[in-house]
């Protein structure tokens, strides 16, 4: 019996909140894209993807990374009882980002036609002009998200980001598309969803943090805010570029419909991030608080790696085997062209998130922020130059290969760096069992894809076969550990008992 680690319980308990929100947000996100792909052509959807990619890139410069200062300084002032200074941070950050984001929005509106000319898509200029208003809106939205972090109220962040925004956006987009607005309908739904989410989020935060808002305002020195935020802002620039560089390269070399098809494939393949994104916000502080106890750090790292691999591996197998069927059924048959994109990206994301994730949360928690930034630059550089070289030759598959190579490379770098710096690694006998269980699951899934003629039947039956075989293999190989039972206990006592079946006799 291994030592009880309260951090494992915290990881499960807090991670489950964000996981639930991410699942709901992911389902609604897929529903929105399914709606779009059925009412507009791939070229129109591709234009919308290009326009929102430009917006999301510009808004990073617009807010200077200042929202990230809120969940760093506000908790400190609250802990010290200095409510006026906590209020001052929120007020100063909000006022600053409103000014800077408005200026960036104005600059984008004035240059919209020039950007459209660069991509040879005249309609893109109209989309950018209309969407420029969302740059200050996104700045306030990010302020609210970090504000909920600062008062440790993640459930209200889930309400605003994962429930209100996607639901309102879906309803508004559906109504506008039914009325025949096309690209304008996509833009209108995006703006309305964001506006309502901000309104609801602001109301909830004001109510829940009234003790802060009612305090006498005390302005704080701006230099520490900027000193903390600007380096993170530069890292965010690279992250955003990394997430959208493929769309920019495809838009430059190919047509807007290729961008739309690739976006659907990328979205399906990167859906594996949901597990990592749920655990990462909790995992980083757990590592930071125990960074001097490397034995405990490695134990927690191995638990997280096993859980990420154990949940995402069968999903990767399902998506890789049935990519064409899922694209055809969830979207439309024309998007099945992105099947290789899904296979490449799903495999690459599985490897990357298992060994530290794209934002290097383990390295961050250990204090190696410079290494994280260097890894991010490598990730972006390999992705960008790889896509630039391969897209003209291979089309959308070239962009997927560039991204996959970058993700595999940085995942390998992270493993090497962790071992070199602190002799940390996730590999163990229990980890091997989790990975090996994927072999019989894959073998069981292949006949479904080869011999079942209906895409719809494949979509329904493939998860049952793969996940069923995977789970039975884990039970047969006694792959569950004490830490697994401890994690499961935070979700359900019944689940804990099921996990504990394989622990007797240890």
From TrEMBL:
Species of the source:
Natrarchaeobaculum sulfurireducens
Task: Identify the Pfam families for this entry.
Answer: Polysacc_synt_3
Principal localisation:
membrane
Membrane topology field: Multi-pass membrane protein
Q: Which CDD domains match?
A: MATE_Wzx_like
Look up the domain of life of the source. Answer: Archaea
Q: Where in the cell is it found?
A: Cell membrane
This one is known as: MATE family membrane protein, Rfbx family
Q: Which GO terms describe its cellular component?
A: plasma membrane
Which terms are listed as keywords in the entry?
Cell membrane, Membrane, Transmembrane, Transmembrane helix
